[in-house]
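Dear colleague,

As promised, here are the two records you asked about, laid out in our usual form so they can be pasted straight into your sheet.

NAME FIELD: protein one
SEQUENCE, THEN STRUCTURE:
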Amino acid sequence: MSMKSRAVLGSALALLVLSACNDKNADKAASASASASASATASSSEVAATVNGTAISKKQLDQIMQQQAGQGMPDTPETRKMVIDNLAMQIMVAKEAETKGLDKKPDVVDQLEMSRQSILANAYVKDYIKTATVTDEALKAEYEDFKSKNGGTEYKARHILVEKESDAKDIIAKIKKDIKSFEGLAKAKSMDPGSKANGGDLGWFNPKGMVAEFGDAVAKLEKGKFTEEPVKSNYGYHVILLEDSRPMVIPPLEEIKAGLTQQLQQKNLKKMLDDMKAKAKIEIKAAPAPASAPAANGTPLTLTPINPASASASASASADAAKK
């Protein structure tokens, strides 16, 4: 492990990063509450360590290691020892905060309550993702929609993107004299950083994934031909060379079933949350403060929204781990 990693793990700031909750901002506000309940949590599972009688459960440690593994931290005895050291310091500092009565301060109480709500909301989303059933009928319908949007022809093309129409016309005039000059002109003139170094090569693509003007122009070209008039889009002016085309191959349902299932879960989750909001009675009593305005205690207040995508990914990872 590098010295940089050791320094980060050994710092007091790392304590707030190494909690097992899903939301990082919620973790920071909830650390005092989490340490206060650590003993009760550990009583129902194997104990990994104790700090002045307060237990750190093996389950807590395993959750943290699993979370950090996704960020490249190796699960070794050494790193587990570092995590335990950090958790121990967190528990000690939180206990000192309670001794001083900081957990009773109105701003701390407010942060703990917001943290509690955030954790519960994300737990609800994770549970929904884990338990929501996707029917075979719905999956087949999603697959048919996928086929309709991704069928047809895909193209292999190069392009040169410039700011001015006059520049595009100059490039077209040069290509008319020598079509082999296209790659060199793309490297020298194109503003597209993604394809410039490759001579404007875009690889194979579905024209539906391009801006409409570009996709329409490509679809009208014959193999080996280029646009003899600049193609204008929001990005500038394009000169396009079509190298090849082929029918798109749609993978069978079984190959993409997992991805479609997750996509349907996301759609269902969004609908459920939208319905929940539509039925709720939300009354705004005061105009929201500007985004840059600090909270009353001088510390910017950060609200963490529910993130269905991250919750879904986390739930999927948990499900995979359970299968193992």
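NAME FIELD: protein two
SEQUENCE, THEN STRUCTURE:
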Amino acid sequence: MRLFAAVRPPIPVLEHLSGALLGVLGPSRPDDVRWTAEENWHLTLAFYGEVPEGAVEELTADLAGVARATAPFELSLRGAGVFSHRTLWIGASGDVQAMTGLSAAAAAVGADVTGREDDRPRHRPHLTVGRVVAGRGGRARRTGRAVPQVQALVHALSLYEGPTWEVDHVLLVHSRPGAGRGGGPLYEDVARFDLTPDLATRP
């Protein structure tokens, strides 16, 4: 199974972001960008890749342990940017230190179970909303600049700030590339792990 761990903002937070994108873009979105399906919006904690069926149970148990050792914390979606002149993302603010710590712990258990490390740094929590289409994106990378529509969108969303929510659980998600809407990935939740309230006050 192709798996990753993630935090998914609640529906009101996602609806607020969707409304902000609609307000900036209008009813039609630039065709230079392949937009991610809104039902797939999430903040990745750790990517595990293909995990053998026999190792899923161990990974699930270890992630449950990470959740039990983590107290809930607050985040909000804020600002925007582009990675590698290609990936359009919405950033996060709030207790980013708690988020990055949770991400590091989730990645560590994945490395222990699979023997592979997630080679993508997760020091900047973000939610991906689109990727530059390959042809135009190739030109963008060679020139070192994002396509103009993406640059304009990032500028327009640079001051975006969504509502605050409490991160109180982690999801283990099965990714099925090409099986989702519009030929995108289909994400199916495998397990949910609740964080531990009042952890700091426990003996």
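A couple of things worth noting about protein two: The radius of gyration is 17 Å. The beta strands are 2-7, 33-35, 43-50, 73-83, 87-94, 126-132, 165-167, 169-176, 186-194.

Best,
R.
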